[in-house]
Amino acid sequence: MNPADDPVRPGPATAIELVVDGRAVPGLAGQTVAGVLLGAGRRTWRSSRSGRPRGVFCGIGVCHDCLVAVNGVDDVRACQRRAADGDVITTTDEPR
Amino acid sequence: MIETPDVLVVGAGPAGLAAAAAARRAGAQVVLLDAAADAGGQYWRHLPAERPAARERILHHGWDRFARLRGQELLADAQVWLVERHDDRPPTVHALVGPADGTAREKRVFAPRALVLATGAYERTLPFPGWDLPGVFTAGAAQALAKAERVAVGRRVVVAGAGPFLLPVAASLVRTGARVLGVLEANPWPRLARAWTARPAELFASRGKAGELAGYVRDLIRHRIPYRAATGVVAAHGDGRVEAVTVARLGPDWAPGTERRIAADAVCVSHGFVPRAELAVAAGCRLDPDGSVHTDAEGRTSVPGVFAAGEITGIGGADLALAEGSVAGTVAAGGADRRGFTGFPARLEAAHGIRPGWTGWLTDDTLVCRCEDVTAGDLRAAAEATGSRGLRSLKLSTRAGLGACQGRVCGRTVEELLNRHTGGLLDPGRTANRPVAALVRLGELAAHHEDHEENA
Amino acid sequence: MKVLVVGAGVIGAAVARELARAGVSVTVLDRAASAGGTSASGEGNLLVSDKGPGPELELAQRSLTLWAELRESLPAQLGPGFPAIEYEPKGGLVVATTSSGAAGLHKFAAVQREAGVVATPVDGRELEPDLTPAHTAAMFYPQDAQVQPAIATEALLASARLSGAQVRQGVEVLGPLRRGDRLTGVRTSDGDVGADHVVVAAGPWSAQVAERLGVALPVRPRRGTLLVTTRMRQRIRHKVYDADYVGAVGSDDAALQTSSVVESTAAGTVLIGSSRERRGFDERIEARVLSAIAAKALVLFPFLADVAVMRAYGGFRPFVPDHLPVIGPDPRLPGLWHATGHEGAGIVLSTATGELVADLLTGREPRVAAGPFAVDRFSSV
């Protein structure tokens, strides 16, 4: 949510930038890859075996629905991996 | 190099933090590790150090307690991927330290004198038609995204399932800018009341928990969030994302009755909890019939030198986890601590436990295994076609539970459904058997081999 | 004639199917569930490439012919609602990574060819573009194939049922029923079961069953461990293994041996084996074993280094000291038969084993010479 309206009053954050499927996406240092993707309005970024869309489901590293490729390495849980400035994220919308 | 601490504590949530602190007080050399980047577990999940918040405590209970416990040394980003049991000594614990699911992480191997498993639990989510639509989340996901990312899972959100955990989720959602349309508890008031008001002396003993729950209830009232008993979400609808949910009255055994549709863009569901027991299973620890790790009153498991504390021993909330962790940590360090525990877990099961009528909302094409897209109809058809009474064989026939999550999400549901279709499985209880406890890269495994060769 | 088959794994299933189709009244007993032991713990290999000339190769060659028939006939018989057995005639690629390994591979292939095995020297990277460029020889075996072993077992059992066989799961054999010197059935956890013949097809547990019936059998468990990766885009098209594999299969050493076996499955995962170690029925998964398997797999396919492993599982192969299965009647106890000891080749050998047992029991002319598999070849018997 917008930090200005946030009742927990988060402190200042360092901006980072990821490259998601070739496009620059802004995030904040300390966010997970899933947090950056959701913040950018993406709800899904992967397809199940038969092509059904998948994104975050459990949010705590259990369900493996949210797998992405990070810097060319497949099968990284987006909800567990902290985003690093410059990370190249590849989502797979084709079933596999 | 194999490290040999007095006590190794796996998991830095409430139970693990308390265990490590107690073991340190008892004079032990302790290694406390967690797969996350910071301590707190799911309960005290919070904004990262890069984004400290001024009023973090409004999302939490017991934040002062956490503030005292979190000062301990923590081996963060440490993923345990294998526990090897031995006949004559406590297990060896293999961890990889580095970015989650990374490559070339640092290898750490521990042969502790005592091992404390405080790996917690995750939610059991029962399948329903449409539960894999984007916009359906576990309640834990809503909680994690609210606490650690300040992201609300939707604008108009329904929270549904069973158990007191639904209340803090609703509380976090409203503090993250979402509108909570209702909290739907599957169980009826009489059952809730019977379980929660029986034996008031016990409830008094777990008053911390009762006080926490009362706070959440006040919160619902303040935000005008309806709380409905005997009600559940039985379907989610939408074109590519959740646009509405079907809410049904549920009978005492959760069989669905009268339905109505509510417009919503997200639904957060939790029907109970599953202990994260794979490390305990690999260590050889006996489980209770509900799948939680069996311990004595001082946290000893059935394996000498292996202790367990917190939610993997039964769902009891943070206060109980703190108490259990403290006792287990002290005893693991060679000390003594005899304290009684409250009846909260038994109460929780009596009031909120899953009832068998839920399968009434399944259709043949409802997905059960989200990883491999196996439906309820697929499971029944395979059981009928093969005549097998083997969970192993039927999983291999359908691929249910064999995908990336390795049955963590669907395992119990698959087992329960197949148990009905086969007239009784002959190899039940296999769902927590995951010797490889986390994704590990082949290159990381091979690097271990080079070390074995050097040592040989 | 009434025959009791002990064991609802692939061997028991194939024996039951052949007997039932020959008109014999068959009951299959298993103390646990069907397809729950060794048959659910392997890759589902249908291989000739790892076998030198001799009786096992002859049994395998006959088996492959029968499997090729089953590929068509089982789905036709069981209908579209039955899970597919995932028969894949993918072929095997055996790769050497040293110069002595290359020489050994060419020599082995030459004697195999004389026995009717098709073995063609190839450019390994033409068949497998991601194979290490550092290999020294590659031999293609087009006759090698694969099935999903648990489903194949269930399919054979279902087919046996359609011919009248009865399958009773959760029924354990406790002891013999005898009349004079002859075995007339078994005592079980669910009452006595009479039979004219009892066929023990209990895989690595066959020695325990035989002991309960009063005879010793030199079948022991030999442990194996497999790694399974997450699903990935298919980059491995054949069953690819290191030429060392043949040596490890044929070894008598109890200590850990690994050799690399890498293949894709129909589900999109990659199976990586394999280890062989004799240490009883010990189910523990150990880092040293997983590491050794992984290191060898990376020698063949360096790209696998970044691929994630999601599961490891172990199983027990029925090991016999001379590496030949035990098939046929037991002269020490008339009425007792054995069909066991197939070690890691039980899936492929099941079909011809079932046929051979049925040939011998019903007095048909055996398609494969039975003598080499006779139980009385052991000095202790």
UniProtKB/TrEMBL annotation, chain A:
Q: What is this protein called?
A: (2Fe-2S)-binding protein
Alphabetized UniProt keyword annotations = Oxidoreductase
Check the record and name the InterPro entries matching this protein.
Answer: 2Fe-2S-bd_N, 2Fe-2S_ferredoxin-like_sf
Q: Does the keyword Oxidoreductase apply?
A: yes
Q: Which domain of life is it from?
A: Bacteria
Automatic annotation (TrEMBL), chain B:
Q: Cite the BFD-like [2Fe-2S]-binding domain residue spans from the record.
A: 367-419
Keyword annotations: Oxidoreductase
Among Pfam families, the record links this protein to: Fer2_BFD, Pyr_redox_2
Q: What is this protein called?
A: FAD-dependent oxidoreductase
Q: Does the keyword Endoplasmic reticulum apply?
A: no
User: What positions does the domain FAD/NAD(P)-binding occupy?
Assistant: 6-324
Coiled-coil regions listed in the entry: none
Q: Which PANTHER family match?
A: ANAEROBIC GLYCEROL-3-PHOSPHATE DEHYDROGENASE SUBUNIT B (PTHR42949)
Which superkingdom is the protein from?
Answer: Bacteria
From TrEMBL, chain C:
Q: What is its EC number?
A: 1.-.-.-
**Which intervals hold domain FAD dependent oxidoreductase?**
2-360
The answer on whether this UniProt entry bears the keyword rRNA-binding reads no
Q: Has UniProt tagged this entry with the keyword Hydrolase? A: no
Per the record, a Pfam family? DAO
Question: What general EC class does the enzyme of this chain belong to?
Answer: oxidoreductase
Coiled-coil intervals, chain numbering: none
Q: Which GO terms describe its molecular function?
A: oxidoreductase activity
Keyword terms: Oxidoreductase
Name assigned to this protein: NAD(P)/FAD-dependent oxidoreductase
